[in-house]
Design goal:
By secondary structure, the protein is an alpha/beta fold. The chain is 41% helix and 16% strand. It contains 15 helices and 17 strands. It has helices spanning 3-6, 26-32, 58-71, 81-101, 115-130, 149-158, 175-181, 204-213, 233-236, 261-266, 301-317, 319-338, 367-376, 389-395, 411-433; strands at residues 39-40, 43-44, 46-47, 109-112, 136-140, 161-165, 186-192, 217-221, 240-244, 255-259, 277-280, 285-287, 343-346, 357-362, 379-380, 382-384, 400-404. Helix 3 (58-71) runs antiparallel to helix 11 (301-317), helix 4 (81-101) packs across helix 11 and helix 5 runs parallel beside helix 6. It is globular, with a radius of gyration of 23 Å. The two termini are 36 Å apart. Bound molecules: ligand C6P. The site of ligand C6P has 17 residues, from helix 5.
C-alpha cells in the first residue's frame, strides 16, 4: 500500500488571496469546503476538475457524520425511534429534490446510485417495453458514454436505429439538421443538458417540443446541467431527467431519476427484492407504489441525507447567482486562455452559451503531460477523452485537457492556472529541443 497517499495532507495556514466575484463570496465558499485549504505538491490546491466531481462543504460532511453518530438505522422498516428519524430524513430529501427540480410529485423522484444507473434504468425498463424493430433513438454527437452506450445496446438488442443530432462548428446542436433526424420513427430523444467536454448548453425546451411533436419521449441527462443551471422539469417539459449529487456538492453514490408519473407507473421495476414490494405470495408479487417500486434493497441512506444538505447549500447561494458567477469566471478564463499562443479551444466561444467547462489542447503538449505538469503547480484539471470517445473522433483528437469551474473558483484561480500553463510550455519547449 502506498502510505504516502494516506498521509494527512498539509493544511495551509495563510488564507489564500481570493477575489470576491460579483455574485458569490468565493473566499467564504472556499473556507466552507475543508479540502480547499490543503496543499498539493507544496502549492495551494486550485481545483478545476469540477465536471468530474465537486468538493464538499463541511455541512454535507457533517450531515453524514451526524447520521452515523446519532440516528443510523435502516429505513421504512423498524418502528423504533432511530428508524423513524432516518426514514423522515431520507424521505425529506425526496421532497427537497422534488422542489429543487420543480417536479409535480415526490412519486416522480427515484434515488439511484448515479446518473448512469438512472439512464440504464430508463433504457432497460422503458426501452425494452416500448421499442421494436425499425424504431429510432436519437442522441447527440456529444453525449457522454453513459448517455450513449445504453441506447446503442438497446438499439442492437431491439433492431432499432441509433441516430445523431450533429453539431455546428462551434459545438452547438444544429437545430436545422435536427428537423431531419427527429421524425415519425423516433421513440426517444436523449440529450445532455450541458456537454462535459464542450460546455455547450443545449436548447432543451425546443428539443423536448420537437420530440413530443413526433410522439416521442424526451430524456435529459442533467449530470452536468443540474448543478449549474436552475432546472424546472415542468417548464422544460422533459419526461425523464437524470443527475448525480457528487457533481453538486453532495457525496458519491447518489443519483436521481425523475420521470413523469404516468410513464413511471407503466414501467416495470428493474431490480426485485426488499422494499419494492407491496405483498409477496409463493406464486406472485404485487409491487410497491411509486417511487419505491424502483428502489429495491437498502438504499444509500447516509449519502441521500447528506445530499439534502447539498441542496440546502446550493439553494441558499441561489442557482441564478451560481450561473452568473460561472459566466463571469468562464469569460475571464476564455479571455486569458486566448492570450496564449498555440492554444486550441473547443466548443462555444461565448460564456453565455456554455457552462463552466473549457476543453483545450496547448502547444502540442499531450493532455496527460499537461495534466501532470499542472498538478505539480497544485492545479487539478482532467485530461483524456472524458468518456466521450465518439466526440473525440469527430474533433479529430485522441483527447483534450479540460478545466471546469464551480462556486468556489475565483479569477485568482484562473491566474494560477494560466501561469502553470505558461510554465508547462517552457518546460516542454526545452524537452522537445533535446
Ligand atoms: N462525467 C466527467 O468527468 P455519473 O458517473 O453517473 O455520476 O455521471 C455520468 C455522466 C453522465 N453524463 C454526463 C454529461 C457526464 O458528464 C457524466 C459524468 C464525468 O466528465 C465523469 S466521466
Amino acid at each position: 500500500m502506498n502510505h504516502q497517499l494516506l498521509a494527512t495532507p498539509k493544511i495551509i495556514v495563510d488564507e489564500p488571496v481570493r477575489e470576491r466575484s460579483a455574485m458569490l463570496d468565493t473566499a467564504k465558499i472556499s473556507r466552507d469546503s475543508p479540502i480547499l485549504s490543503r496543499l498539493v505538491n507544496g502549492r495551494r490546491l486550485v481545483y478545476l476538475d469540477n465536471a468530474a466531481t465537486s468538493q464538499k462543504p463541511g455541512v454535507v460532511i457533517d450531515a453524514l457524520k451526524h447520521y452515523y453518530e446519532y440516528y443510523n438505522a435502516n429505513i421504512h422498516r423498524g418502528l423504533h425511534t432511530l428508524s423513524e428519524e432516518a426514514t423522515a430524513a431520507f424521505e425529506g430529501v425526496r421532497e427537497k429534490v422534488r422542489n429543487f427540480i420543480d417536479a409535480a410529485s415526490e412519486r416522480e423522484i427515484i434515488f439511484t446510485r448515479n446518473a448512469t444507473e438512472a439512464i440504464n434504468l430508463v433504457a432497460s425498463s422503458w426501452g425494452r417495453n416500448n421499442l421494436k424493430e425499425g424504431d429510432e433513438i436519437v442522441i447527440s454527437a456529444m453525449e457522454h458514454h453513459s448517455n450513449f452506450v445504453p441506447w446503442q445496446q438497446l438499439a442492437n438488442e431491439k433492431g432499432a436505429k441509433l441516430r445523431f443530432l450533429e453539431l455546428t462548428d462551434d459545438g452547438q446542436i444544429d437545430l436545422a439538421l435536427a428537423q431531419n433526424v427527429i421524425g415519425s420513427k423516433t421513440k426517444i430523444v436523449a440529450i445532455t443538458q450541458m456537454s462535459n467536454v464542450l460546455g455547450t448548453i443545449t436548447p432543451v425546451a425546443k428539443l423536448a417540443q420537437m420530440a413530443h411533436a413526433q410522439g416521442a419521449v424526451f430524456l435529459l441527462d442533467g449530470a452536468q446541467g443540474v448543478a449549474h443551471l436552475e432546472t424546472s422539469v415542468r417548464e422544460l417539459d422533459v419526461d425523464f431527467l437524470v443527475f448525480s449529487f457528487h457533481k453538486m456538492l453532495g457525496p458519491t453514490g447518489v443519483g436521481v431519476l425523475y420521470g413523469k408519473e404516468e410513464l413511471l407507473d407503466k414501467m416495470p421495476p428493474l431490480l426485485f427484492g426488499g422494499d419494492m414490494i407491496s405483498s409477496v405470495h409463493r406464486e406472485r408479487t404485487k409491487f410497491n407504489e411509486l417511487p419505491w417500486k424502483f428502489e429495491a434493497g437498502t438504499p444509500n441512506i447516509a449519502d441521500v441525507i447528506a445530499s439534502g444538505a447539498a441542496i440546502d447549500y446550493l439553494s441558499e447561494l441561489g442557482m441564478n447567482n451560481i450561473r452568473e458567477h460561472e459566466i463571469e469566471i468562464t469569460s475571464y478564463a476564455l479571455k486569458r486562455l486566448r492570450e496564449l499562443d498555440d492554444i486550441k479551444i473547443y466548443g462555444p466561444a461565448d460564456a453565455e452559451n456554455k457552462g463552466g467547462v473549457i476543453s483545450f489542447n496547448f502547444a502540442d503538449i499531450h493532455p496527460h503531460d499537461l495534466g501532470q505538469m499542472l498538478d505539480e503547480a497544485g492545479v487539478a484539471i482532467r485530461a483524456g477523452h472524458h468518456c466521450c470517445q465518439p466526440l473525440m473522433h469527430d474533433l479529430g483528437v485522441s483527447g483534450t485537457a479540460r478545466a471546469s469551474f464551480y462556486i468556489y473558483n475565483s479569477k485568482d484561480d484562473i491566474d494560477v492556472f494560466i501561469s502553470a500553463l505558461k510554465e508547462a510550455k517552457k518546460v516542454f519547449g526545452h524537452v522537445s529541443c533535446r
